[in-house]
């Protein structure tokens, strides 16, 4: 009925595991109180995948063993998904009803997941996964949750969790959709901070600006800047290339140079060793600067965080910002990248194709005046040079305003 080829039961039939071969091949299971760990070989991911199913106990004291088990396995080097009925809410907004939740239980839950660097997957399609009746009345809570580690996010382009309709159970089922496809559409132009360190950047920009036609007005400036983007993109490919591949090659050269110097400690091998290490530091800094800029972290000073930290921030932001579905004018869900893109194009085409609506000037007299004449003159006044300079100098040196300012 489920379309699966294999099944196994655990914890006195409280947990059942179903999987389909050859998509998933079970390697081993580790059964612990309240949780079962399954190691699979994933055909899609071409490697190991851990999936842990949870059936938590009802009291805080009993769930202590569950948190300890999760914490002991959290430092996993393989992709890991953990989910199920934790019998505990993860935040206070996951509760509704007159029976107040235990704040200490919530803190235990959060501390366990944060200590293990397990990231919460927010579901769509509903807020509460369980409902029931207590002596104080009706109660709604989200007791079912799904988490994943950073290794899992690194191997997937999207991880979408949907809350389905309730059946015979008092819990709503979850559907987890993992996508390994990568976005192959056009990429926007980005001025990279690491370019500034290259000695030919300023000359490249000056040469283009002085030797190309100048157009009038802001529209002309925008056109010239657009032409400059193509020049900088070509320049970046020639001068920088693939910084990630260059880093890997630099690591290999540095390792070989170190081995050669240790085997032949002479002045020539020392020069080679120092040169390889200098190149490795250069390419490492380029990668760190790249991910620092992509992460948009502003509260850290130079050198305060590692490349891994910035990369994880970028991955997590991409997961949160990814649009998995939208609603049309009739309230119907639209899913799939191509369908969402087509609907967005149609929507904005319709907006900007509509005829402008004429406004009766007499209606303006009914709009209340909330500012006086002095305020109006101040707002319409041309700013002084000092004000313009101060506003520009206050901008973040590693950022730029968008088309709307």
From TrEMBL:
InterPro entries: Endo/exonu/phosph_ase_sf (IPR036691), Endo/exonuclease/phosphatase (IPR005135). Transmembrane segments: none annotated. GO terms for molecular function: catalytic activity. Residues 55-171 form the Endonuclease/exonuclease/phosphatase domain. It holds the Pfam family Exo_endo_phos. It comes from the Eukaryota. This is Endonuclease/exonuclease/phosphatase domain-containing protein. It comes from Cuscuta campestris. The lineage of its organism: Eukaryota, Viridiplantae, Streptophyta, Embryophyta, Tracheophyta.
């Amino acid at each position: 009925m489920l379309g699966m080829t294999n099944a196994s039961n655990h914890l006195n039939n409280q947990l059942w595991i179903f999987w389909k071969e050859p998509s998933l091949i079970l390697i081993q299971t580790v059964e612990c109180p309240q949780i079962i760990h399954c190691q699979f070989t994933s055909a899609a991911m071409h490697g190991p995948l851990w999936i842990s199913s949870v059936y938590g106990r009802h009291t805080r004291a009993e769930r202590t063993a569950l948190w300890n088990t999760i914490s002991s396995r959290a430092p996993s080097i393989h992709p890991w998904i953990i989910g199920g009925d934790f019998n505990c809410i993860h935040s206070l907004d996951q509760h509704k009803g007159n029976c107040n939740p235990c704040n200490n239980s919530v803190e235990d839950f959060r501390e366990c997941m944060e200590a293990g660097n397990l990231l919460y997957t927010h579901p769509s399609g509903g807020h509460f996964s369980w409902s029931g009746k207590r002596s104080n009345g009706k109660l709604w809570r989200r007791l079912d949750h799904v988490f994943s580690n950073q290794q899992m996010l690194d191997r997937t382009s999207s991880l979408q969790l949907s809350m389905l309709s309730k059946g015979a159970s008092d819990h709503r089922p979850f559907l987890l959709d993992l996508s390994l496809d990568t976005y192959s559409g056009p990429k926007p132009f980005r001025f990279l901070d690491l370019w500034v360190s290259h000695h030919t950047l300023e000359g490249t920009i000056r040469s283009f600006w002085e030797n190309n036609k100048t157009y009038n007005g802001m529209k002309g400036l925008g056109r010239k800047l657009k032409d400059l983007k193509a020049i900088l993109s070509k320049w970046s490919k020639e001068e920088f290339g693939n910084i990630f591949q260059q880093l890997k090659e630099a690591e290999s050269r540095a390792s070989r140079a170190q081995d050669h110097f240790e085997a032949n400690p002479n002045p020539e091998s020392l020069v080679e060793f120092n040169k390889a290490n200098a190149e490795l530091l250069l390419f490492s800094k380029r990668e760190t600067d790249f991910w620092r800029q992509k992460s948009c972290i502003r509260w850290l000073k130079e050198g305060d965080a590692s490349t891994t930290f910035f990369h994880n921030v970028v991955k997590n932001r991409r997961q949160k910002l990814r649009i998995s579905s939208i609603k049309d004018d009739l309230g119907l869900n639209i899913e799939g990248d191509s369908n969402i893109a087509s609907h967005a194009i149609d929507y904005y085409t319709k907006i900007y194709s509509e005829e402008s609506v004429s406004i009766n000037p007499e209606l303006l007299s009914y709009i209340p005046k909330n500012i006086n004449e002095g305020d109006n003159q101040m707002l319409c006044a041309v700013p002084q040079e000092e004000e313009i300079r101060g506003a520009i100098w206050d901008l973040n040196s590693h950022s730029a305003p968008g088309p709307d300012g």
